[in-house]
Amino acid sequence: MSALAISVPSVVVTWSSAASDSEEIAPVSASAKHSGPTVARRDAQVSQRGANTLLVIGDSITSRFNDKRGAKNQGFWSILADSVGAKPKTYAQGGAGFVNPGLVRCKGYNFSQQVARPAVREMVIAAGALVIEGGRNDTRTCVKGGYADVSNAKLKRAVNSFMRQIRALRGRDDCTIVLLPWGPRGEENRDRITPIIRKAARKQGFTFVNTMGLITKQRALADKVHPNRAGNVALSKRILAKSFARACFY
Predict the structure, then answer these.
(1) pLDDT at 46 over 90
(2) Which of 24, 35, 72, 175 is 20 to 30 Å from the Cα of 169, by its Cα?
(3) For residues 95 and 98, what is the distance between their CA atoms, to the nearest angstrom?
């Protein structure tokens, strides 16, 4: 995934009130927000100030898009937040993953490093729902003098370590939602990486949403990696259909 070259680590952060996209996904009603199955909740002592936040840790499939209702580049996370009546906040960098740090030449953060930042850690604990979006960038990573392939063993260690890191902050939690969106480019790596992330997420009691095959050529941008408008809508609908996201906010 492409990213602008910059000399210091930075993170794309967005936080705004999501607006309605009612033609595609109806906003949640007050009663619906409290219906559905019981979901795991943070310890009662945790501050409630972030309880209405939909927090996303991700890569450029998150950072590339915006929170503008009906816009061509509205992100799946923005559409999702509106549909559940939540406030979206994202920490995402192009190129980031469980192993790979974000940004050009890996000058940014991987997911574990991102969550280790005090402000992000606090939001991970308090958020009504946490969406972990990524894994596609973990096919190769930076090494001295260039890049090297990421082995299955290295990926498993990084993914399992990160999931334990999140478990320590949120406990076993249905409102921690993990997904790996993957366009039609590089499907051989998709089939290798997806089972590793799915197994690690479920082991810690998180919700894994299967998006395999969802971002088709018709739902992807020309790069065959990032979703277009239809792809972002499809992602938000899949999350709603396959998770307890509507019941994660109060």
Answers:
(1) no
(2) 35
(3) 10
Share of the chain above pLDDT 90, in %: 78
> Within a domain: residue 24?
no
Residues 6+ apart with CB under 8 A from 182: 136, 190, 194, 211, 212, 215
- Which pTM value belongs to this model? 0.84
Query: Which residues are paired to 147 by β-bridges?
Result: 142
- CA-closest candidate to residue 116, choices 64, 62, 156, 168: 168
Ramachandran sector of residue 90 (left: φ over 0; alpha: ψ -120 to 50; beta: rest): beta
Quote the number of domains for the chain.
1
DSSP state of 22: T
> Domain holding 164: CATH number?
3.40.50.1110
Spatial separation of the C-alpha atoms in residues 85 and 204, rounded to whole Å: 27
Instruction: Taking residues 145-172, report their average pLDDT.
Output: 97
Does the pLDDT of residue 83 top 70, yes or no? yes
Counting every residue written for the chain, the total comes to: 250
**Three-class SS of residue 56?**
strand
